[in-house]
Every structure is written in C-alpha cells, then in structure tokens.
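We modelled the chain as a single entity of 423 amino acids. Its sequence is:
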Amino acid sequence: MRDILITVMVFGTIPYIFKRPWVGILVWSWLSYMNPHRLAYGFAYDMPFAQIIAIVLFVSLILSKEKLSFPRHWIIPIWIFFIVWMGITTIFAYFPDLAWGQYKKIFKIQLLTFLVLLLINDMQKMRYLIWTIVVSIGFYSVKGGIFTILTGGSGRVWGPPGGFIEENNTLAIAILMIIPLMIFLYQTTEKKWIRNCLLVSIILSFFTVLGSQSRGALIAIGVVGLFYWKESGRKIISGILIIIFSFILLAFMPESWYQRMETIKTYQEDSSAMGRLNAWEYAVKAANDNFFGVGLDSWSPETFLLYAPNPVDVHAAHSIYFSVLADHGWIGLFLFLIIFGGTWMVLSRLSKETKNNEGFREIHLLAKLLKVSIIAYLSGGAFLSLSYFDLPWNIVAIVILLNEYYRKNEKAMVLNKKGSLNY
C-alpha cells in the first residue's frame, strides 16, 4: 500500500512540474531529503524517483517560455570553479573509476542546486522551498523526538536509509541546520495551529539531536547555543531560557548517554576519536604530497599505507574540512572555505543592512537564522563527512537568492498600509 501511495504521489506531481518547472525543485528536494520511497517495503523502495523527477524538470525547462536568469554574485564563479576543480582532481584520482562514480553523484546534486538559483526567483517560492526542507527532514526529527521520549533516551535515533543523513551523527547535524528554518517559519507564519505545530517540532527536534547520541552534535549544540545567545537582542532573557531548556533536555537523558558523552574528555582512550585523528593526519600528508589530492572515494588501505600514521586504522574523513583536503588538495579546501566564508559574509551584511528596516523584516530574520544554520554545519561538520551533502549547498543558494531579492528591492521597495514589502 505504501509503495502505491508513494508512486502515485510522485507521478502525480509531473503535470504540475511541466506547468511550473520550479515545482520540480520542491519535489526533487522532498525525494532527496526525506527519501520517502525508503519507507516502503516493495517495488517503490529501489525506484529512481529522484532521477525521474530530474529528467521531467529538465524537459519542462526546455519547453518553458518563461524568461529565467541566474543571479549575479561573486560566489557563483568560485562555486563553479570548485565543481570544475573536483572534476580535474577526479582525473588524477588514486582510484579513478571509483572517483568518477562519486563525482557523477556530486555533479548531479550540484546541477540541481544550481537550478534552485535559476527557478526559485521570488520570496514566496523560497518559502515553499524552506517548507519542503523543513517537512522532509523534520519528519525524522519529530519521529525521532517522540522515539527518544518514549524510550527515555536509551535508544539511538537514525535517519532515512540510503541517504546522506542515514547515520545518527549526520542526522543530528542536519536537524540542527533546519531548526533555525523552523524558527523562521514559526516567527513569520500567521496561522496559530501551524505555529503550534512548529513549536512542538522544534522541541522534539532537540530531543532527537540528543537521542542520536552524537558527540559531535553535542559540541555543535554548544557552539550554536553560544552563537544564538551572542546574536540575541535580549541576552539576559535568552540566556536564562537557554539554560532552563538545556537543563530540561539533559535531565531527561539516561546514564548511558552521559557515559558516552564523557568520552569526549578521554578521547585518547576512544578508538573512534583516535581513528579520526589518524584520518585527519592522513589527509594533511596526502594533500602535501599530491597537488590534486588523492581523489574522491580514496579512503582505503592502499592510501592509508602511504600516508596514515597508523596504516591499519582505516577511517573515513569524519570532517568536511579534511575530507575536501584529501579529496581535492589544498586548492580544493581553499575554494570550499571561500564559498562558505563568503556566504557568512553575505549573511552578516544582509542582517546588518536590514536591521532597522521593517520592510525587510523577513529578509533580516532569515539572514540571522541562516547564520545559525551555517554555524551548525561548520562546527558539527568538523567531525562528520558531509562535504557534499545537499543541504549546506542549498543554503548557499538560498543566501545568494536572498541577497539578490534584497538588492533588487532595496531602492524600489513599495510598502503597503501594513508596512510589509511588495515584491
């Protein structure tokens, strides 16, 4: 029954995509983040729904008569160069066949993300995209929060099978990234019942993050909480609320959770932590010895034998930074940091310029909260292999579009009687 329902839902969107290509972005995002077909048990489980929707989306673009154009921003050419550079490093990869297979997957994600820049060309469409992301990942954060409460925090929460966020650690960071988007929707939605649902979802999402039993996520929560408090206009009130809420969450977790988190202090005795350090040193040595890095999908016994301090302790990167460094060399890491550093700069400028302008209230609020999402990714990602995950790149696209909307309407904005912005 689930297989039929999911298949009907996916194929039922095709006529709408042909009529409005931007709907294809929403459907593809839903399939990529939520992986609804993985919740089925029959023929739909292995159906290439995302690929089908992507093909329909490109056909609809070809047939569309709408005039579309990419926003102009300095991050875009650097972003394109990073994608090209990944292709170049793939040519020189240690395992070229494996690298090409991985690069094709990354290229498809990047291509669809660039279509976000092309098709999500107004604030209303952006809201729809944010809602799609929140609902898709939020499904697992709400479900995981309920599971954590029912099991008293003793069970570990996992994400959708077959995706970037299947693992408990990656799911936790993805949830930390969407919580600010939930807060944005909560503060900009008028219907009370929707706001109440979002509030409950936010609370349950924090339970899911703790229920993932991810040590990296715990560190990311601390960084995000400190940054949120720093950015808050009411530091005393927000500080008290953060402390109270943290106490409630932590008081709920069982002794086994505390024992796992305590291993952060004694990382020298933890095989997982030492494996990460071994992999990170491997990445530095591999990049120092190879101008193009060793290529995608190269974390193997053969390469660890060449560059790792402990060649028999083979691990994945477990870090967005060291992953890119080993895969694409120092130039690749430099481009990666410029893209996300530039995104941070854009958000800082937007939040500053729109601070006292009621007409740009939504842009100001979203810019501030997207900074929290970026902080969650950059801090939590230091311990996870999420360099090529869709969500952070979608956030970069959203930031570029947000900046474009602001610039277009900065001088020409028209306020209605309520003081809101007409686009």
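As a brief sanity check on the tokenised model: The chain has two domains: 1-67, 74-268+314-422. The chain has a mean pLDDT of 85.
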